[in-house]
Amino acid sequence: MLRTRAIPLAKSIARPVQQTQRRGYAAGGAGGASNLPLALGIAGIAGLAGYVYMDRSTRAAASANANEYADRAKDAAGQAKGYVNERASAASANTNEYLGRARDAVEDAAAKAKGYANERTSAASANLNEAIDRDPSASSTGEDLKNKAQAVGAAVSANANEAVGEAKNAVTDAKNAVTGPFDQERKAAGEAGAGIVAALVKNKWADFKLEKVEPYNHNTNIYTFSFPDPNAAAGGVTASALLVKSSDSQACVDDKGKPVIRPYTPISPQDQKGTMQLMVKVYPEGKMSQHIAHLKPGETLSFKGPIAKYPYKPNEFPHGVAIGGGSGITPMYQMITHSLNLPEDKTKWTLMFANVTEKDILLRERWDKLAKEHPDRLQVVYSLDKPGYFWKGEKGYITKDMIQKYLPKDNAKDVKFFVCGPPGQYAAVCGPKDGMKQGEIKGALGELQYDNDHVFKF
Question: Could you tell me the superkingdom of the organism this chain comes from (predicted)?
């Protein structure tokens, strides 16, 4: 229990009086006994002075403590705002995470500040009661002091509430700064998912439930996964991918016993609420594709992302040429459908899609429908390694001459190429990537003298 200055001071005043009485001396006028009320009165005044001194110190300390916690909350809110401004193109999940941290800091500040004030007020009141118990004649003064103690406690609590309120306002300001200009910027850039709640979290794995499986052809299926929050969407910029692994850490592992992780690009819009679709081609030796193929509705798969690949902006270039092969068509589908759905976007597209046989052409009915709906903006070219007798499209690999054949005649040098497919196609069309870097432009596009400013490798 805290000690006040009142008790030692009262004792120091009363002790000489008691000693005087024991020696038989008396103060002038009223006799020795008359000194006792005077001493008690002086003790009460001293107690009041000591208690006020302590409460002032307590109030100042508690206020400073509350302000310190409030400042920490404000700093957390500022960090949230700064993080979002710095990462304006990142997933909104990160925004929610940092704003959540700021709100947690506010709640923590409130609890600690109020607790500190209550603790100090209770301690002071206990000290006061102890002083009154030792000196019952000071009870009348004690009631006044109790009232003052309660007033001090209320003032400290109000101070803490004010500081916490300021911190909460700081969080609100940060959130408004995020959901205002940030959303406007995203909408101006044509980014899907502006203002939505993101189901994907960039640095954390999340399990989504498999709802249904739709066979597409002999070796490819479309899988629909649902989000825990039906109002959430995948989120992320166009074009972006996500990482996939088994929900059971031991169900799909590599030769070293480590979980297999693979990137996939959803074919559903990033702002689609409640669910997303993956198109997965099942390979005989593909550990992850085989794992997904054996999932049953109701089971889950772990996802993390999104991983931004190419931040598409409407009207960034007049003509885009997408060269894809096999399952490498999914990022092309995500980007081109997004572009065609933007009313203000005038970008024209040519899709050159290479496959082995006609039945291997993924999303063909969707591509044909888009080309019919947007004849002025989309041209689709299919090429087959093993065409049937009645095939009327292109034949063989995508070569330099085939690319030149479909380049726009008026601005062949002002074209942006996007390539995604098997390693052999990369080597023939644009050269392989250099790890995570784009690498030198070789192959057919290198021969046509296009550089990294005009070519992007997914």
Answer: Eukaryota
Domain span(s) for CATH 3.40.50.80 in the chain: 319-457
Tell me if residue 390 falls in helix, strand or coil: coil
Cβ-contact 317, 309 below 8 angstroms: no
pTM above 0.90, yes or no: no
The two three-digit tokens of residue 302, written as one number? 């772990």
Judging by beta carbons within 10 Å of its beta carbon (0-12, 13-18, 19+), is residue 430 exposed, middle or buried? buried
In this predicted model, what pLDDT tens digit does every residue of 227-259 receive, in sequence order?
A: 999 999 998 889 999 999 999 989 999 999 999
CATH topology of domain 206-308: Elongation Factor Tu (Ef-tu); domain 3 (2.40.30)
DSSP summary character for residue 404: H
Domain at 319-457, CATH from 3.40.50.80, 3.30.429.10, 3.40.50.12780, 3.30.9.10: 3.40.50.80
> What would the two tokens of residue 179 be?
């959901």
Phi, psi (5° rounding) for residue 196? -100, 165
139-179 and 35-86 helices, crossing angle to 10°: 10
